[in-house]
């Protein structure tokens, strides 16, 4: 019972109880198939179904709000335009996590970052992940440390055993059942230190980007979406229309007064 309470509390703290004013403008980076309930604007570099392997749940990108198809390390948004930016389970997929965090802290005043923690990921990880993620608590604020992976699995012999013994899925489900223990969750304001260790082989990066769908948490994604709907039923959301020119960088402004629509804007 206590474990269930802990899971619900972690879910609420990371997904629902966000420290955002009612009229705050919120960005979700790497929104995929399950954007945050509170996000006003979405950004996803790979919204097409060809990249479903990078996502979990349904695998299909949701475009129920304005979605910018753009590089997270070179966002098309103006400085400080967002009150809050969410970046959940994205940094482990990108080739330049330092650049993405730099952009997050440029376009938003505060935000939330979540990545898989290395100790759990080294037991069973996903072929689309590029980094082992750790938190260096010796600094203030703590530094997110990203170590370049050199292969899909930390130990190929253990990985082969889990697969041939049919233990891979049961072990992954067990790890997922303690989800709040196997992630690094960071709320930042103003800045978030991050550094990388090592570099990637280009061929390895290409294989991860083109990895076939591998997440099998579709049922959990449905449950999470239903739980979110229940918990946010009476919570206020920003309803004010957003002008295109109010969020993009000055050199991208059109001057036509157009409002953002629930469609894809490609950059």
UniProtKB/TrEMBL annotation:
It comes from Nocardioides kongjuensis. Keywords: Methyltransferase, Transferase. This is SAM-dependent methyltransferase. It comes from the Bacteria. Residues 67-111 form the Methyltransferase type domain. Pfam families: Methyltransf_11. The keyword Glycoprotein does not apply. One of its GO terms (biological process) is methylation. InterPro entries: Methyltransf_11, SAM-dependent_MTases_sf. One of its GO terms (molecular function) is S-adenosylmethionine-dependent methyltransferase activity.
